[in-house]
Design a protein that fits this description.
By secondary structure, the chain is mainly alpha-helical. The protein folds into 2 domains: 1-98, no CATH class; 100-220 and 236-266, no CATH class. The protein has 13 helices and no strands. α10 (167-184) runs antiparallel to α11. 31% of the residues are buried. InterPro entries: CDP1-like_a_solenoid_1, CDP1-like_a_solenoid_2, CPD1-like. Residues 146-259 form the Plastid division protein CDP1-like 2nd alpha solenoid domain. It holds the Pfam family ARC6. Residues 1-102 form the Plastid division protein CDP1-like 1st alpha solenoid domain.
Length: 267
């Protein structure tokens, strides 16, 4: 039976269906482990090594599947696998098969809902660790989670916090902004001002002023690498916090894009 599953896996890989091949190998692994007499076979160690190597690619493929009841269980499994890969990557004493973390994690986060990102990454805790630049944990974290991925975590917290009216999530987004400005020397004063505005600790004019500064200091002909800071044209129209909230925050997550971006109804 294990050999039959290996044959199924081979067919899956030949058809570029990584997840099907991965799942077949996982079934073969279970079959071999279920019998003590087969537990020391070379085939089992080969399968386990292949599963480790294929885990990142399989995870991305499953996360990219259509959101449907039929795929729900496989998606939960993929998120669990992503969580384990992150645990391995952030653990300074554990090896991980992910070769290009910024690329891998960026692709993974782009396939997650805001709720899933918030549940996956304790962004405020990670950002606090990052502030201590000299610590081994902070240095290792920079390899795994780059600024663009952290920025996506900020947006997820703001999107979910706004759509669900959970100020604690907005407050976490503010904490991440503060820590990243201290550790990366990157200007996130607009995002911080927007969070303060939602928390009732700042006013709309302050947030608009910061957004205007971003637009005036940006080159309209170039596209920012940071989502939400793209200047789409050179017009001098007054920046709108609600437009930024709608287009650059809520719209990028499938579970928040239908939320009405009215700041009037926030409180």
């Amino acid at each position: 039976m294990a050999l039959a599953e290996c044959a199924v896996a081979k067919i899956g890989f030949e058809r570029n269906k990584v997840s099907l091949g991965f799942e077949a190998l996982a079934r073969a692994q279970c079959l071999l482990r279920s019998k003590i007499s087969l537990g020391k076979m070379a085939l089992l160690s080969q399968i386990e090594e292949s599963l480790e190597e294929l885990a990142p690619a399989c995870t991305l493929e499953l996360l990219g599947m259509l959101h449907s009841p039929e795929n729900a269980e496989r998606r939960r499994g993929a998120i669990a696998a992503l969580r384990e890969l992150l645990r391995q990557g952030l653990d300074v004493e554990t090896s991980c098969r992910v070769q290009d973390w910024p690329c891998f994690l960026s692709q993974a986060l782009n396939r997650l809902m805001a709720t899933e990102i918030v549940d996956l990454l304790p962004g405020d805790e990670l950002a606090i660790v990052r502030k201590n630049k000299k610590s081994l944990e902070s240095q290792n974290q920079r390899v795994v989670i780059d600024f663009n991925c952290f920025y996506m975590v900020i947006l997820a917290h703001v999107a979910l916090g706004f759509s669900s009216k959970k100020t604690e999530l907005v407050n976490k987004a503010k904490t991440i902004c503060e820590c990243l400005m201290a550790s990366e020397s990157i200007d996130l004063k607009f995002e911080e001002a927007f969070c303060l505005f939602l928390l009732g600790q700042g006013n709309q004019d302050q947030a608009v002023e910061k957004l205007q500064e971003i637009e005036s200091n940006s080159n309209p002909a170039t596209r920012s690498l940071v989502p939400g800071k793209e200047i789409k044209d050179g017009s001098s129209a007054k920046p709108s916090l609600e437009i930024w909230l709608k287009d650059s925050v809520l719209a990028i997550f499938s579970d928040t894009r239908d939320c009405f971006p009215s700041l009037f109804f926030w409180w």
